[in-house]
Amino acid sequence: MFKIESKNVDFFYGSSQALKNINIAIKPNTVTALIGPSGCGKSTYLRLFNRMNDLIDNTKITGQILIDGEDIYAKGVNVDSLRKKVGMVFQKPNPFPKTIFENVAYGLRVNGISDKKFIEERVETSIKQVALWEEVKDKLKKSAFELSGGQQQRLCIARALAIQPSVILMDEPTSALDPISTSKVEELIYELKSKYTIVIVTHNMQQAGRVSDTTAFFYMGELIEYDNTKNIFTHPKIERTQNYITGRFG
Amino acid sequence: MMMLDENKLAKRKKLRQSIAFGILSTLSYSIIAILFIILSFIIYKGIGVINWNFISQMPEEGMTKGGIYPAIIGTLYLVGGSILFAFPIGVLAAIYMNEYVKDGIFKKIIKQMTNNLAGIPSIVFGLFGMSLFVNKLGFGDSILAGSLTLGLLALPVVIRTTEEALKAVDNTFRQASIGLGASKWETTSKIVLPIAFPNIITGLILSIGRVSGETAPILFTVAAYFLPKLPTSIFDQAMALPYHLYVISTSGTNIEESRPIAYGTALVLIIIVLIANLLANGLRKYFGNKVKMN
Question: Which of B102, B179, B293 shows the shortest C-beta gap to A99?
Answer without folding.
Answer: B293
